Amino acid sequence: MKIGIVCYPTFGGSGVVATELGIGLAKKGYKIHFITYSQPTRLDFFNENLFYHEVNIRSYPLFKFPPYELALASKMVDVVKYEKLDILHVHYAIPHASAALLAKQILKTQGIDIPVITTLHGTDITLVGKDPSYEPVVTYSINQSDGVTSVSEDLKKDTYKHFNITREIEVIPNFIDLEKFKKQRKDHFKTAICPNGEKLIVHTSNFRKVKRIDDVVKVFHKIQQIIPSRLLLVGDGPERDGIEALCRELGISEDVRFLGKLEAVQEVLSVADLFLMPSEKESFGLAALEAMACEVPVISSNAGGIPELNINGVTGFNSNIGDIEDMTKNALHVLSEDNLQTFKTNALLRAQEFDVTNILPQYEAFYNKVHAEVMATQKV
Ligand code: GMT
Questions:
Q1: 202/185 Cα distance (integer angstroms)
Q2: CB atoms < 10 A from the CB of 254, how many?
Q3: Whole-model pTM?
């Protein structure tokens, strides 16, 4: 089967899932064609089954806003036609799903019926999508796609709640390649960061407001008053300056390090004792799954789909959004010498359920089902 994958190629979770899905399918012999505006971050090696098509956006003095969606739709038409794709799988509703549906309509006039699958990732529904400036297009795109998946039960529920959806949505959760994402021996790194045996706490995100990184810092500040510890913050984004200011205000700058957009995040997670994810919204929490794969327990909020991953009292704990006291109490419980190893073991066991080898077949089955349905309507 030849599959076109459309995604945001940058560091976001939806782009990571889309790229890893393509890589996993290519290893199984599928021909995967990525259609994006730049090379996806993790697609930096050669594989005979992986292809990359760049979307070129022609600007013109008249365009205040260059029409990316139209350039993307045109590129999809071209790739589907000349590479003879069987399916288009778009990740993140805006604007990928509507662009794919435009491409589908154009191709139909040329006698080609391309099945379009849309995967909803989170903020395309919970934040941006339900804004009145996009809602009609998102509703239309979900209802008109040939197949729709969401990354958690909670996101599926939210989609039905906020949009007038008249179709089935299949839940296929985020996944992880445990061959790639696993605890590595990095003792020298741990000794350098925590020379006196301090506990190491980690947070990774795109530093957006929705991640509530100020809660990360406040929880860390309280933990540190009881258990000597250090905090590593991986990622970058609009909240960074405010968070640095908060660290200075609390007098903890010496114990907090900002590592920026680190690619080898598993190296940091390999030496971590605890992962903090106090998000306001989180459809699944891929960053928490990455931590768990490296045997790191998670203290999180109970937002969105996080409780579907982080099992309360087993792999970590979930608290109400913004409940710093509860998160601190739970963190101290997990970090205690009596409990830490059990939580670490449980985190890995839970992550194994989301291994790529378990989740990829769900996508394959979904592709086959949707493809067969679309082909059957052609024969009628
Ligand atoms: O975490 C982000 O803000 C990035 C965002 C994205 O779309 O790239 O992540 C979303 O998709 C991930 C992959 O499906 C999920 O694991 C994240 O939970 C989700 N983020 C939010 O819902 C805030």
A1: 17
A2: 8
A3: 0.95
| pLDDT tens per residue across span 182-203 | 999 888 999 999 999 999 999 9
Query: Is 285 near ligand 1, meaning CB less than 6 Å away?
Result: yes
- Give Cα 365 to chain centroid, integer Å: 21
**Cα of 41 from ligand 1 centre, angstroms:** 16
The helix (H) or strand (E) run that includes residue 298 is: strand 298-301
pLDDT > 90? residue 159: yes
Tell me if 174 CB under 6 Å of ligand 1: yes
CATH superfamily ID and name for 187-352 = Glycogen Phosphorylase B; (3.40.50.2000)
Report the separation in Å between the CA atom of 286 and the middle of ligand 1, taken as the mean of its atom positions: 7
Residue 380 — very low, low, confident or very high, per pLDDT cuts 50/70/90? low
**What CATH superfamily is the domain 2-175+356-379?**
Glycogen Phosphorylase B; (3.40.50.2000)
Q: Comparing C-alpha atoms, which of 191, 127, 172 is closest to residue 370? A: 172
Residue 282: CB within 6 Å of ligand 1? yes
Query: Measured in angstroms, how far is the CA atom of residue 91 from the centroid of ligand 1?
Result: 11
Q: Does residue 229 have its Cβ closer than 6 Å to ligand 1? A: no
Structure tokens at 136: 């009609």
Rounded Cα distance between 89 and 75, Å, is 14
Atom of ligand 1 nearest to the CA of 14: 8
- Distance from Cα 284 to the centre of ligand 1, integer Å: 7
Closest CA to 362 of 12, 11, 24: 24
What H or E segment, with its residue span, contains residue 233?
Answer: strand 229-234
158 lines ligand 1 (CB under 6 A): no
